[in-house]
Amino acid sequence: MDALVLPQPSAEARLPVLEFQAGRPGQQGGRLLGQDLREGARLWRLAVTLGWLDIKLRYRGSLLGPFWLTLSTGAMVGSLGVLYATLWKMNVREYLPYLALSQVLWGFIAMVVSEGCTLFTSVETLIRSVRMPFFVHAQRLIVRNALVLAHNALVVIVMFAVLDTWPGWRALYALPAILVWVVDGMAIGMLLGAMCARFRDIPPIVGSLMQIFFFLTPVIWTPKQLPPGLNWVMLGNPFFDVLEVARAPLLGAWPGTHVWIAALVFSALLCGIAWWFLARARGRIAFWI
Fold first, then answer.
1. Rounded to whole angstroms, how far apart are CA atoms 234 and 162?
2. Is the pTM of this model over 0.90?
3. Whole-number Å distance between alpha carbons of 255 and 105
4. Does residue 197 belong to any structural domain of this protein?
5. Overall domain count for the chain
6. What is the per-residue DSSP string for 221-237?
7. Rg of the chain's alpha carbons, rounded to an integer?
8. Does the structure show a pLDDT above 70 at 16?
């Protein structure tokens, strides 16, 4: 019996394999990550639909739905605002809009960071059963929390209307900040999602750090209350810069060029770290979850 001779692959067929082996993992992962981002951006309608579905399922059977969160936020802002303004001898008409806007914006930041830790582990079945770009889950995260932010914005609008403290045309300066927030939110979501899928001890650490940053960031207190010797609390706090670029215009003020520069530098560093880590970890996420 003649020996079975297997056909040998041609030189052209072996080239992609050799190129893949010769290339560095970071370069190959970077190309795949870029392809993931492009494919995910084309599926933005799917991300919007999934985010909307998340809100419907979360408040299914509820009478007011997400407006329960709006009512609780309004009650907390009203009670704490009057109390803190009295204790700190501040003008209620100036402090209440500041507190309402700070609480609503911080709530969005905190929820994006918290849910970013479970970005991939919460959709384990979907990742393993359907071929879908990971970037879709990051967009879904932003859409879901943007809808909650839109509901809570009613508290700020009511506060502006009752106290007659509208920001005016300067509120348009917040539009570039919204773009920065979207980019940062998707970057932190994918970074934390991949890291927490590998190391399950990170979510409680992130939760504790967010509680610390809540008190270190001017949310319930104003920067004017800090003594001159404690300005480093804001200078070394990236959450202050990211929060201020959106909050200041909505209060009718300009955040300052130095605040914008710090926010953009933080955004660039965050996106760079997320890209570096995901370029190496993207192919392992399905195994980590």
1. 31
2. no
3. 15
4. yes
5. 1
6. S-GGGS-GGGTHHHHT-
7. 23
8. no
Please give the Cα distance from 35 to 282 (Å, whole number).
Answer: 12
* Residue 113 to residue 279: CA distance in whole angstroms: 21
217 is written with which tokens? 């960031």
Mean pLDDT of the chain: 85
Residue 48 lies in a domain: no
The owner of tokens 């880590």 is: 277
At 268-277, the pLDDT tens digits run 999 999 999 9
CB-CB contact of 143 with 47 (8 Å): yes
pLDDT in tens, 134-156: 999 999 999 999 999 998 999 99
Is the residue at 238 inside a domain? Answer: yes
Is residue 2 assigned to a domain? no
- For helices 238-250 and 174-198, the axis angle rounded to 10 degrees is 150
